[in-house]
Predict the 3D structure of the following.
Amino acid sequence: MAIIKPFKAVRPLRDKVGLFATRTYLSYSRKVLKDKLENNPYTFLQIINPEFDKNKKIQTKKNYKLIKKKYLEFLNNKIIQKDKEPSYYLYQSNQNNIDYTGIIAAASTREYLNGSIKKHEKTINKREKLFSEYLSKIGFNADPVLLAYKSNKEIQKIICLVQKRRAEYEFTTSDKTLHKLWVISNNKEIQNISNHFKSTNSLYIADGHHRSASSARLSKIKNSNCFMSMLIDEKQLNVFSFNRVIKNTINIKEIDLLKKLKEIFTIKKIQEIEFNSNFKNEILLITKSNSFSLIPNKGTYNNDLLSILPTSILSNNILQPIFKMDDNSKEINYINGKTPNNKIFRIVNESKNSLAFILKPTNFNDIKEISDNNLVLPPKSTYIEPKLRSGITIFELNKNES
């Protein structure tokens, strides 16, 4: 059973939403971030970077207070305001004629802790603790966790009906993505949505493992029983891999690396950097001078859910034994699978002593099976779209709890 709740979102005014909503903070270079903060007084980035223009490092706890202060300033200046009625929010984005549509709601930390909301990636305890403290101090969350559910015709009918109405928000961002948001405050529609999700056995975290875990951690010490989520039909998800660029490989020459790999893989030199087999665990190796297809030999891996995946094969047979690295090594640069292979080739060639491994993505059915069996992939195993904008809806902790 999936328990979700409507909540009173804090949202930008209609004429400010295009200026307020942002990409995830970490996706901006420092130069772009500086430009946005200097030229857009309404961006959500102003709230989470209150001291960006100061040439001194602010202590973490003091920074939390400044963020909260800036948030309250935006409320007082009516750039953002809180809805009067608990609502669900239907959000849609369209880029390159690809639609992603989901329902923004409050999900239950109890459901996460009891396993009804399922995870598939390992989280890092240090990051969990840090983000939990952050949430506790600032008191709000502006980034929904992306939760996938099994296709449901009745939920889809409600979505279609809502989309026939005029959207509360409709704006286009600089990446040519069209964003729309509908507010669902009608009690009957709210009840119907809640009831249909109750018939859903499980929800699956597609993006936001650390945010979910941090909220659950916080719920054990504070009265914070929910976290903001966007629920999306699993068929809409687009799953990519995370590719790896390995830096500082000065201690191993290409010829020696290939000699070691031939003990484990069938190796074929390739001209085009593209997968050329139906093996889902084929790996591509890019060096400064060549590209190779690596197909693991039989006996290299077990046929269990995790061992057969490309991330596990790479980690267990190459990164750990040959490079003496684990998945958290500082010498590994993770690049999302949307990045063209020829760009990764350029990165390798422009970097000293580097090479790259390109992986096939894990399909979502395999991800669900991993989750259902209480197994977890290493961090940075999947890159899943849609990626949601920060600040379109803000969830105030405690004030939305019942």
Remarks:
- Residues 307 and 313 are 6 Å apart (CA to CA).
- DSSP finds 13 helices and 21 strands in the chain.
- The mean pLDDT is 92.
- The first strand starts at residue 4 and ends at 5.
